[in-house]
Amino acid sequence: MTPRRAAPPAPGFPAWRGRRLRGTAALRRLVAQTSLAPSDLVLPLFVKEGIDEVCAVTSMPGIYQHTVDSLRKAANEAVESGVGGLLLFGIPSVKDGSGSQADADEGIVNRALRALRSDLGDSTVLIADLCLCEYTDHGHCGLLGSDEVVDNDATLVRYASVAAAQSEAGAHMIAPSGMMDGQVSAIRAALDSADRVDVAVLAYAVKYASAFYGPFRDAAEGAPQFGDRAGYQMDPANSDEALREVAQDLAEGADAIIVKPALPYLDIVSRVADAVHVPVAGYQVSGEYAMIEAAAERGWVDRDRAILETVTGIRRAGADIVITYWAAELARRLARLSP
Ligand code: PBG
After folding, report:
1. Cα angle 63, 222, 158; round to 5
2. Contact of 184 with 155, CB cutoff 8 Å
3. 54 in Cβ contact with 65 (< 8 Å)
4. What is the pLDDT of residues 255-277, one digit of tens each?
5. How many beta carbons lie within 10 A of that of residue 192, not counting itself?
6. Which of 141, 177, 283, 293 for mutating ligand 1's site (highest number of atoms within 8 Å of CB)?
7. Is residue 260 among the annotated active site residues?
8. Which of 220, 187, 182 is closest to 44 using CA atoms?
9. 207: annotated active-site residue
């Protein structure tokens, strides 16, 4: 009997069929190029001074301003879920012109860092966000000069002191987010002279002046009382400048870098990841979170799929790490999904 042969494809008929590798979940899993593990995720947490109970953040459903006690619980649960690290923001009850609570020994963020470090030791990576906007009465990220413009170089002196305090309190990494020029070298020098040579700098090298920080400013109570941050954060129209910021931060001693926000800037995540050989984190910011939560609440998008798809997209663009408010939830889900 003559063997049966498939007919040759008709002219113009596709020989390659993408669908062949998509037909079953097992096929898709075998050929997936982007992986997502709980340890790739970092959870931001807010701790507020002077409250007895957690406060819900209205514009970020599911996110809370914590007391030190509830923070400890949330941090512990997040670590149990397998997340790679925690990023801590403090909200003091008293704000002033110099943001003095940021480096006060008994300031909320330093008390919280000490508590978390004593609970968790080295079982996770404690990252302290370093900025003054949550601590100043005017809500800007640095000290104001007489012209009401942020004074870059005077602010560096404050950042150095805050970095020393946060590392003393137990942070494994310091993450400066104020976009002052020279902040990484000022912080590196302060850490070294405080004998904290092992504390790493995770630099927000690329941070755009973004509308998507809106809900965060409710959560961290750090909205500028006048003006905006366009004078120090990056212009959304620019991308080459991102590479200059990154090169500068690396030259100043940054150990890893952040691109922020993530979703509207995936091209930047991709360019930066191609250009450097240090870990790159994409920060899925508060507005990205709020958009999906709000749309999901109305039944307009499938929440769980949207979360997985956006975080995967940030990884696919080249981010090694994703900072996301869904970190703990997603980590738990990933653990359930993995065989
Ligand atoms: C502080 C800071 C901001 C965010 C992280 N650190 C806000 C801002 O610059 O206005 C935003 C995080 C988010 O929106 O989730 N400088």
Report:
1. 120
2. no
3. yes
4. 999 999 999 999 999 999 999 99
5. 12
6. 177
7. yes
8. 220
9. yes
Give the Cα separation of 285 and 313 in Å (integer). Answer: 14
229-240 as b/e, with b when 16 or more CB fall inside 10 Å? beebbbeeeeee
pLDDT of residue 339: 58
- Judge contact between 108 and 90, C-beta under 8 A: yes
pTM for the model stands at 0.95
Other C-beta atoms within 10 Å of 301: how many?
17
Q: Do the Cβ atoms of 313 and 24 come closer than 8 Å?
A: no
CA distance 165 to 197: 14
User: What Å distances lie between residue 47 and 55, 63, 114, 263, CA to CA?
Assistant: 10, 11, 13, 26
**254/202 Cα distance (integer angstroms):** 6
Going by CATH, does the domain composed of 37-337 fall within 3.20.20.70? yes
Alpha carbons 157 and 66: distance in angstroms, whole number:
29
Q: Is the distance from CB of 289 to CB of 324 less than 8 angstroms?
A: yes
Pairing of strands 55-56, 85-91: unpaired
Sequence-ordered list of residues with C-beta below 8 angstroms from that of 220, at least 6 positions apart, any chain: 46, 89, 91, 133, 134
Report the pLDDT value the prediction gives residue 108, as an integer from 0 to 100.
98
**C-beta of 179 in contact with ligand 1 (< 6 A):** no
Over its C-alpha atoms, the chain yields an Rg (Å, rounded) of: 22
Q: How many Cβ atoms from other residues are within 10 Å of residue 51's Cβ? A: 15
| Closest CA to ligand 1's atom 5 | 177
Beta carbon of 216 within 6 Å of any ligand 1 atom = yes
Residue-wise pLDDT tens digits, 213-267: 999 988 988 888 888 888 889 999 999 999 999 999 999 999 999 999 999 999 9
**Do 120 and 79 form a contact (C-beta atoms < 8 A)?**
yes
Question: Whole-angstrom Cα distance, residue 134 to residue 93?
Answer: 10
Per-residue DSSP letter, 151:
-
pLDDT reading at 148 higher than 90: no
